[in-house]
Amino acid sequence: MVRRMAMEISEQNPGLVGVALVGILTRGVTLSRRIGKVLESMESVRVPMGSLDITFYRDDFDSPDFDPEVKDTDLSFDVTGKRIVLVDDVLQTGRTIRAAMDAIIDFGRPAQIQLAILIDRGGRELPIAPTYVGKRTGTRKDEKIRVSLSETDGGDDQVFVVQRFGGPKKP
What average pLDDT does range 3-22 have in this prediction? Predict the structure, then answer.
């Protein structure tokens, strides 16, 4: 899925001129690094990469149940004029992506923001659509997609559908 998304990014952005990958912490960063490696091997071009912590941009920040773990944002390049490819593991409501776009815009004015998502599970609450998708799947409201990546979670790469208050349901 990562290779296919990288190929689509390359096709939509010839020569990768002005493109930068920005992963949303935590698994989006890992996925953006994987995409970046594939792009570099395909195009012999290293695109700028960064990581984005959206904690303070979330719309549930004031919720009593919210217990944030703030991490560092790392954007070592100017986002102004760049085609930013935001990368994350799962897209559902669109609220995380809205927060990420707000955060990016606080760093400058990109020429374009594209979205690369490993798993699109549907269920949008905001009018946000991914540009690049690894896999689309439908889930019920009482289910959750859990992505496990070797770099962040140890073990093998896996995607599970889990009950909100239970263990894995199906791989």
Answer: 98
Distance (Å) of CA 62 to CA 57, 99, 156 = 11, 14, 35
Q: Cis omega (within 30 of 0) on the bond before 26?
A: yes
Measured CA to CA, the distance from residue 114 to residue 8 in angstroms comes to 12
User: If we measure between CA atoms, which residue out of 158, 143, 139 comes closest to residue 89?
Assistant: 158
Q: In the CATH hierarchy, which fold is given to the domain comprising 2-139?
A: Rossmann fold (3.40.50)
Name the pTM for this structure.
0.90
Confidence of residue 156 (pLDDT cuts 50, 70, 90): very high
- Among 42-56, 89-103, 126-140, 151-165, the minimum mean pLDDT is found in 151-165
Cα–Cα distance for residue pair 110/118, rounded to 1 Å: 23
Give the integer Cα–Cα distance in Å for 103 and 112: 14
Q: Which of 52, 70, 51 is nearest to 61 (CA)?
A: 70
Q: pLDDT at residue 3 above 90?
A: yes
Asked whether the beta carbons of 126 and 141 are under 8 A apart, the reply is no
Query: How far is the C-alpha of 102 from the C-alpha of 12, rounded, in Å?
Result: 24
Residue given tokens 């019920």 in the structure block: 140
Place of tokens 């004031």: 62
